[in-house]
């Protein structure tokens, strides 16, 4: 038995195990090799060589797309706020509908981007780590609840998707009519703790990947225009923060 549970077992109503935040680092695997990126532009876009100006134009197109989408969604692009972003965007989630984008934050953060080096008609590509403006889309996913997707506007559009299993569990409990009380990253009460644990253990990799692919496809228009991009997807996911497995304990009230 966990030492904390053993010491406080007389004051604990129930406990459960689940993931807290789950962070997926998304990349398009073929474009992690400069030669394959060159081949993509040559074969699918009939562009050669890939120049610095071309990469700048691609980034500018994304910035323009983000501005246009924000106006269409009625969600203004905001600068990085002071303090915790989660606290800042909390108010936007209060009346959020399923699959609604509620906030967009533009912030300067490190990212892996493709750079072009050369001049005239002699260019080669290199992958570099740079501080660039990125877009954080906060949304209410129909299956996961509150998540955010960060997309780098510079080719090859590295991205992150952040989930929280507590929000996912809250939706599953609600679907089954199980009463509970949630406070951010904790369930303070649950009418059926055993069902809560079974639901927590039922999470699969497909639950994560399907949601991530859904939103990454929506937020990367460069790969959704025209048949020439068929088969290009974010297929390689590096998973972070899964080690943050926690036990939530609730004292008797």
How is this fold's topology laid out?
Layout: H1 3-8, E1 12-19, E2 21-27, H2 34-44, H3 52-73, E3 77-79, H4 85-89, E4 100-119, E5 122-141, E6 145-151, E7 159-164, H5 165-175, E8 180-182, E9 187-190, H6 193-201, H7 205-219, E10 236-240, E11 245-251
Parallel strand pairs: 3-4
Antiparallel strand pairs: 1-11, 2-7, 2-10, 4-5, 5-6, 6-7, 8-9
Helix pairs in contact: 5-6
Descriptive overview:
With 253 residues, the protein is α+β, with helices and mostly antiparallel strands. It has one domain. The chain contains seven helices and eleven strands. Strand 6 and strand 7 (159-164) form a beta hairpin. It is elongated, with a radius of gyration of 22 Å.
Average pLDDT metric: 87
Structural class: alpha+beta
- When the domains are counted, the total is 1
| Biggest sheet details | 7 strands, mixed
Q: What would you report as the Rg, rounded to the nearest angstrom? A: 22 Å
Q: What's the end-to-end separation, in Å?
A: 23 Å
- General shape: elongated
The helix count comes to 7
Beta-strand content bin: 35-45%
The helix content is 25-40%
Number of strands: 11
Please identify the oligomeric state. single chain
Poorly predicted tracts of residues: 225-232, 238-253
Strand order of the largest sheet: 3-4-5-6-7-2-10
């Amino acid at each position: 038995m966990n030492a904390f549970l053993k010491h406080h077992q007389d004051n604990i109503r129930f406990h459960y195990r689940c993931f807290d935040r789950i962070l997926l680092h998304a990349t398009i695997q073929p474009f992690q090799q400069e030669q394959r990126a060159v081949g993509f532009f040559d074969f699918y876009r009939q562009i050669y060589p890939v120049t610095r100006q071309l990469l700048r134009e691609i980034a500018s197109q994304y910035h323009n797309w983000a501005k246009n989408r924000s106006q269409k969604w009625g969600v203004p692009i905001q600068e990085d706020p002071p303090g915790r972003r989660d606290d800042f965007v909390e108010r936007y989630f209060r009346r959020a509908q399923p699959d609604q984008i509620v906030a967009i934050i533009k912030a300067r953060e490190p990212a892996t981007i493709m750079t072009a080096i050369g001049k005239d008609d002699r260019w080669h590509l290199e992958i570099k780590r740079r501080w660039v403006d990125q877009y954080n889309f906060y949304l209410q996913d129909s299956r996961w609840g509150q998540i955010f997707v960060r997309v780098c506007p510079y080719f090859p559009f590295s991205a992150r998707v952040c989930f929280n299993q507590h929000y996912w569990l809250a939706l599953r409990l609600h679907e089954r009519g199980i009463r509970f009380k949630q406070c951010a990253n904790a369930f303070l009460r649950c009418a059926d703790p055993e069902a809560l644990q079974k639901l927590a253990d039922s999470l699969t990799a497909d639950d994560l990947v399907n949601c991530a692919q859904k939103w990454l496809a929506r937020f990367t228009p460069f790969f959704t225009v025209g048949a020439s991009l068929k088969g290009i997807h974010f297929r390689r996911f590096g998973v972070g923060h899964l080690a943050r497995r926690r036990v939530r304990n609730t004292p008797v009230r």
